[in-house]
């Protein structure tokens, strides 16, 4: 955690932004969670450290962390997760005409809620190629796929989830 926060602070400094103590606390809460957290769950946890914290406080910190590429919003869950590549420069083009910000995929376990971030350039290229074939230019691609994580599959959760209507 200490290394991740130091890398985040260095990244902010490189971009001319400041990782304030509040932003650092919110980032730490996101990073230490075992699954994506919604803004109000973050607020509840933040109140343990800052009793007077209010929703706008959390939302401003989340907006900043999103802008800096330190966290991601998992739209399907309306929740936030730390970026596995937060210590890296997201602006790199990798020679493919788009930067890291375009290459995110999230695998969301429908049983336990575990979320895994991938940054598979082949997936991003396939989507960009498909879009180009129909005359569409992508600005950003985030793929969110739901299924079962290895732990839930091993525990037999697949049968329960598959049998549930929905």
Identify the overall geometry: globular
In whole angstroms, the N-to-C terminal distance is 38 Å
Instruction: Kindly estimate the percentage of residues that lie in beta strands according to DSSP.
Output: 5-15%
Low-confidence stretches: 87-101, 161-166
Give me the secondary-structure category. alpha+beta
Helix and strand pattern: HHHHEEEEHEHH
In total, how many beta strands? 5
Strand order of the largest sheet: 4-3-5
Describe the 3D structure.
There is one protein chain. The chain has 7 helices and 5 strands, in the order ααααββββαβαα. With 166 residues, the protein is an alpha+beta fold. It has a 3-stranded mixed β-sheet with strand order 4-3-5, with no helix packed on it. A two-stranded antiparallel sheet has the order 1-2. The N and C termini lie far apart (38 Å). The model is unreliable at 87-101 and 161-166 (pLDDT under 50).
Provide the descriptors you would attach to this structure in a database record:
5 strands; single chain; 14% strand; alpha+beta; 7 helices; 166 residues; globular
In short:
The chain is 43% helix and 14% strand.
Give me the secondary-structure topology.
Elements: H1 2-14, H2 21-32, H3 39-46, H4 55-67, E1 71-74, E2 79-82, E3 104-109, E4 115-118, H5 121-133, E5 142-147, H6 150-154, H7 157-163
Parallel strand pairs: 3-5
Antiparallel strand pairs: 1-2, 3-4
